[in-house]
Design a protein that fits this description.
By secondary structure, the chain is of the alpha+beta class. Helices cover 49% and strands 12% of the residues. A 3-stranded antiparallel beta sheet has the order 1-3-2, with helices on both faces. Strands 4-6-5 form a 3-stranded antiparallel beta sheet. The chain is elongated. It starts with 6 loop residues before the first helix and ends with a strand.
Length: 207
């Protein structure tokens, strides 16, 4: 059957998308839209048998493809992103940061109602351009900087701790032996420095 969509309904849908977009830097996700329309226009949803997120997404795409960019699960301001992907959306909403906080990323992903699978997969993509320096923070690879002199000292400290050709990072606490660098010492930072600068050392750690 044909959908019963009045000009008023169309206007309401348009304003709803617009409102979400203006609150989220030009972006709206399919779930955000669905939950909002369900609250505002339950009768419209019922009479048009819109029961899934996809139903509503495709309907809006049909109605407003000239006004917004649609690519499931994303709806965005026209021309906002050259290529609409979840990774680009996330980086856009984070403000393309030099320093990235996982908690802040998680907050954005939750607000946009991304699934846990999407949230994890996207972070793995973003993470490729960053290195981890604390439990929660990551820094852009090209901005990460530890001097050669420091690397030599760090290598020496680790070499002195070798047992049977391996260095154990399990319960590692000897930070006072490490050279002073611009980052605060912790196990995540050490792991990153080993990965990038001292990759030939054989490491034992809890996976």
């Amino acid at each position: 059957s044909m959908l019963q969509i009045s000009q008023e309904d169309k206007g309401d849908l348009y304003h709803t998308i617009n409102e979400i977009i203006s609150q989220n830097n030009g972006y709206c996700s399919d779930h955000l839209l669905y939950d909002e329309v369900e609250i505002r226009k339950p009768d419209f949803m019922k009479s048009n048998r819109i029961r899934t997120v996809n139903n509503l997404f495709f309907l809006c795409q049909k109605l407003f493809s000239q006004k917004f960019d649609f690519r499931r699960p994303h709806i965005s301001k026209q021309g906002l992103l050259e290529e609409i992907s979840v990774k680009n959306v996330a980086l856009h909403l984070l403000g393309y940061p030099e320093k990235l906080s996982f908690n802040r990323y998680q907050g954005i992903a939750n607000r946009l109602k991304w699934s846990h699978v999407t949230m994890g997969a996207v972070f793995s993509e973003i993470e490729k351009d960053y290195v981890r320096i604390t439990d929660d923070s990551y820094i852009k690879k090209e901005h990460f900087d530890v001097s050669n002199e420091s690397v030599i000292k760090i290598r020496q400290v680790l070499k002195n701790k070798m047992l049977n050709g391996y260095v154990s990072l399990i319960n590692f606490t000897d930070w006072e032996e490490m050279p002073s660098i611009q980052y605060e010492w912790n196990i995540f930072l050490l792991r990153t420095i080993i990965d990038i600068e001292i990759a030939d050392l054989r490491i034992v750690e809890i996976k």
